[in-house]
Amino acid sequence: MNVQPIASHFIDGQYVEDTAGIPLPVIYPATGETIATLHCATPAIVDRALAAAARAQVAWAAMTGTERGRILRRAADIMRDRNHDLSVLETMDTGKPYQETSVADATSGADALEYFGGLAGSLTGEHIPLPGGDWAYTIREPLGVCVGIGAWNYPTQIACWKTAPALACGNAMVFKPSETTPLCALKVAEILTEAGAPPGLINVVQGAGEVGAQLVTDARVAKVSLTGSVPTGKKVYAAAAEGMKHVTMELGGKSPLIVFDDADLDDAVGGAILGNFYSSGQVCSNGTRVFVQRGILEAFLQRLTERLQTAVIGDPMDPETNFGPMVSEAQLRIALDYIAKGVDEGARLVTGGMRIDKPGAWITPAVFADVTDDMAIAREEIFGPVMCVLDFDTEDEALTRANATEFGLAAGVFTCDLARAHRVAAGFQAGTCYINSYNDAPVEMPFGGSKLSGVGRENSKAAIEHYSQLKSVYVRMGRVEAPF
Ligand SMILES: NC(=O)c1ccc[n+]([C@@H]2O[C@H](COP(=O)([O-])OP(=O)(O)OC[C@H]3O[C@@H](n4cnc5c(N)ncnc54)[C@H](O)[C@@H]3O)[C@@H](O)[C@H]2O)c1
Ligand SMILES: CCCCC=O
């Protein structure tokens, strides 16, 4: 498959090139080969995209929600029809196995387009009765031009999770994908345009942090939604605050997964595998601190090790493969450094954690046991396939230690005691919690973090609040009584 796009950027309804921008090679993580070369946006390209968005937004906001929603739902249908090609592209961009991308990426993007397309026609303000026959009403208005900035782990999904609610509310979007995975968002823009989105409504510009920073500080931008790491989030939030812009921050985590001794062992092991090794461990909400109650610790480790031996590590395009390479050499290096640090700190490497000797960013899934709360591997986000298993005795102890982190993205609990499950979920300091499951992200459910892991929520009706604002109108029905 030729993945070289027609041009680097998508602006005003068409592909646009500016070879004056810094070259941006796209590396296939499974082989290390360069599969496409794009160019980062120059200031002129950024300006063109923002100008197109500002112009398109006015007419788009004047359409009815039902009309806007119809276009989003048409785009969802096109995405589903092209799922195979979009999944292959996602695999080329990220290295994630086709077995995953064919069910989790374009499909999740299509769900967002369909869901917010369905909501668009019902977005309204409210009527508020007041004393003396007076009343007020609110008008739900779009914010204007929104900027979306993506991480590299879910390039199609992230573009859709931000663009769908933004457009449903009557906003325009300028999206900057991660410089590591620049291909997929271009397809999202192309498909929305084919579905009827007017030129300028959705624009994609390429580049790294400098391009992102230029977008965030532009006076034409009303809202910034970032998916990325906490350090980047702090910079982007601060820059957006200068212009008092709305923000959504979907950031990193070091989420806990608590396994009690009454849990179904295979379900708990399955949850830990999903929460650590899906997408080769490169999922923001991963439950990388697995607290296992002491009574089942050895059984848990044994079953986990057995099941990891059945992982199919190989060509990501092979439908049998269920564990691919990491996204880049740089990300692999970070994971390997943490693994070395874990060994130095005294944790026990139970299995995996070895670089696979072939071209590309390959590593075997790693499990550490005897991990203590103070170790760097238990405190810092690794964003790779490295599971830390910690043991505990009591519920109170597990919850206290689970919450003893500056992050608060997700958390999970495995137990057959329903009362305990809900008690623990209520006690978690995290935005997205799981009971006897892990990492589900249906579009109907709010997704996002607390503490340093973020601000705002994606998906669900909650996202509407983050892409619209209310105007209040007070209506006096009688005479105005003034003091003089
Ligand atoms: N909470 C979520 O929903 C979620 C989802 C996926 C990934 N993540 C997080 O993303 C991180 C991994 O992704 P990454 O390595 O691409 O993150 P990153 O923070 O390095 O980059 C994220 C994006 O921000 C851009 N950027 C960098 N500096 C910027 C600046 N000063 N101004 C504007 N934009 C700037 C980058 O170019 C990139 O597009 C992990 O921490 C992971 O947990 C969070
Ligand atoms: C479970 C959805 C994850 C998105 C973040 O990486």
TrEMBL record:
One of its GO terms (molecular function) is betaine-aldehyde dehydrogenase (NAD+) activity. It is an enzyme of class 1 (oxidoreductase). PROSITE patterns: ALDEHYDE_DEHYDR_CYS, ALDEHYDE_DEHYDR_GLU. Its EC number is 1.2.1.8. InterPro entries: Ald_DH/histidinol_DH (IPR016161), Ald_DH_C (IPR016163), Ald_DH_CS_CYS (IPR016160), Ald_DH_CS_GLU (IPR029510), Ald_DH_N (IPR016162), Aldehyde_DH_dom (IPR015590), BADH (IPR011264). The active site is at 250. Keywords: Metal-binding, NAD, Oxidation, Oxidoreductase, Potassium. It comes from the Bacteria. Residues 23-473 form the Aldehyde dehydrogenase domain. Signal peptide: none annotated. Belongs to the aldehyde dehydrogenase family. This is Betaine-aldehyde dehydrogenase. The gene is betB.
